[in-house]
Structures
1.
Amino acid sequence: MRKRSIIQMTLVGVAVGAALAVVAVAIPWLPDEASKQAGIVDSVYWVVTIICVVVFAVVAGVSAYAVYKFRAPPGDTDDGSPIHGHTGLEIVWTLIPAVLVTAIAVYSGVALAQAEDLPADHRVVEVTAEQFAWTFTYPDIEVEGGRPLTTGELVLPVDQAVLFLITSKDVIHSFWVPEWRMKQDAVKGITTRTVIEPTKLGEFDVICTELCGLGHALMRSQARVLSEAGFADWVEEQQRLAREAGSIQGKGLFTQQCGSCHTLADAGTQGQTGPDLDEALEGADEEFVRESIVDPNATVAEGFQPGVMPENYGEIFTGPQLDGLVEYLLEATGGGGGAR
Ligand code: CUA
């Protein structure tokens, strides 16, 4: 009688477990898989989920069955018969979870090592989080003034592994693109890393997934995955925009700071105190233009006195301002060794 009940209970548990597992697998629970890592992470997710669903269903099924089958009949006020343990059962319910948990740990460890495997031809992107924005820096892509390309939107070529080096300027944030699965904290003072190889073209959300303050829910950016050619075009466009931004800013600075003393046709200034830059800088290279600004007495144009132009422009202008001004002057005077 007792053996038959145990077999019945087990059968009910297994049946319910199997039914629930089928439902769980049939519904598309997860976002698109858009990276090489997504498949690996999802395998771990599903293996663990299926184990959990089966275990839960067996336990819940057995409990429900026992509550129904062994309930006290009406009017029965007797105590249940005392039970003093069951060594066999205890060994089984210790061994099964121990084996399951160890297997999951080993499997997850292998999957993580696979996901973070970094091929030699990878790209590096530095991710900086702050309340409440993301900044992406491409150390291998140079823009105007020798600075690395920096954007607020993450743009990557498809099918190339990316090593993300992640940090924060303030509190803890977390970098996550759901379709890529890999998630990594951004912590001030240290650089965390993760490896992602996008495998699908398209636009995805970059999401902060660590509660970081009032703007946490709005701390989102965009990740765009382009073809290799599309990415090359994008890089070129960014470089062109950076150049133009530099020279537009440079023109404004020139008019403000230099125009009262210097004539420059492009800026429409007619100062006479210093040399006419259309002549003095004609065909000059970047080094000469820069020197003429920060160390004006190094070379003094014919017919002008040394010491007239202040020597502190190197301090007045910030680095990017100086870069922009030099860039603009090269452009306006046809220098720099090439047309732009
Ligand atoms: Cu940054 Cu949440």
Note: The first strand starts at residue 123 and ends at 130.
2.
Amino acid sequence: MASLDRFRVTGGAHLRGDVSITGAKNSVLKLMAASLLAVGKTTITNVPEIADVEIMSELLTRLGCTVVHSKDSLTIDVPEMLGHRADYDLVRKMRASINVLGPLVARIGSAEVALPGGDAIGSRGLDFHIKGLESLGAKAHIEHGYVIAEAPHGLTGTRIELDFPSVGATENIMTAAVLASGETIIDNAAREPDLVDLGEFLVSMGAQISGLGSPLITITGVKKLKPTSHATIPDRIITGTWAFAAVMTQGDITIHGARAQDLELPLEKLASAGAIVTTTADGVRVRMDSRPQAIDVATLPYPGFPTDLLPMVIALNAIAEGNSLVTENVFESRFMFVNELIRLGAQVSVDGHHASIDGVLELSGAPVEATDIRAGAGLILAALVSEGETTIDGAFHVDRGYPNFAEQLCSLGAKVSRE
Ligand code: UD1
């Protein structure tokens, strides 16, 4: 019934007002998975109200945990005896399910995790995850659609060099190595703020980790971890989405509870498009008084420009003054959403991993479809600057990453409904 689940947007409003940022999806799901590393009750606060948190809760429950969700906090009670299998019906809905792999192998010496689904943004291999666990001494292979990993005699620290600073692989290796014997060094590790949050969570459980936020992470294994309490960091991609919304709609949005330091490059790019960006006591304010100038962007692992904001950049350039070139270096299929943007009148041509965009004065509303979370958000921003009405099918994708998005847009003056 996905096609009946849609947003209806009437374009033309200048978004003005205040929004508050909740915890990061790409952090909280990893914290939840890592809670498996310690027997007892772990509490996570600043938990966003998104569908993926419910899916991860269900996954942990099936592994034997008791998960209690109240307001913005989660308590996960992890038993001594854990299940080791994460079934396809849950994993297919959410890529982050793969994050239970490292903790399960480390804690109970075996894991069977279905090959993940998640967004249609590229092939998204697991070879670095599997090679990483093998380097730590696990036996791992793929069979009948499951990653099966075993380490009955425990894991042993070693040096692991990643071919690419994969976020998920760094996370799985780190959450396995914390209970390995001896020292593990991850070379060419991911540096994303969400990964640093996970590392700090593990440290608060008693793990010994240094080098978080750098390409070289060193982990000295410990015998046991203890449960902890931790607040999730604010979502930098939602923050970025509001910043782009302010610029595209020539509005003025104050984003509370945001960490501007996690978004240096995107905010600099918006300033070069003509925005007035100021940091405030608890976040950032983004104001725009004129049509944006086109910006050239190439996505890269952090601290480069985040691939998750690529649809927003293309949407902005679609109505900006001038031509631009946008290059995607992380996921090969991010440009799938461009065809939908073209339905709104955007002038975009894609060649391999480059998109060249010719800005037009205004887009025109049409029915479009979201193919993943970020594409959905990008299309909603495009709809806000389209003449007339746009419907965006596949709203459930957007729900996976943006709590109460339609309500928040309305509170800023947008005309958005959900049907
Ligand atoms: C995470 C984020 C996603 C974000 C991405 C990059 C979550 C749930 N998702 O995804 O929103 O866009 O980081 O910041 O946190 N790769 C391999 N083999 C592997 C692992 C990865 O080839 O074993 C490739 C992928 O196909 C992709 C690239 O490496 O081309 C980056 O992937 P990765 O950093 O692992 O992204 P995710 O952790 O899946």
Note: The two ends are 12 Å apart (CA to CA).
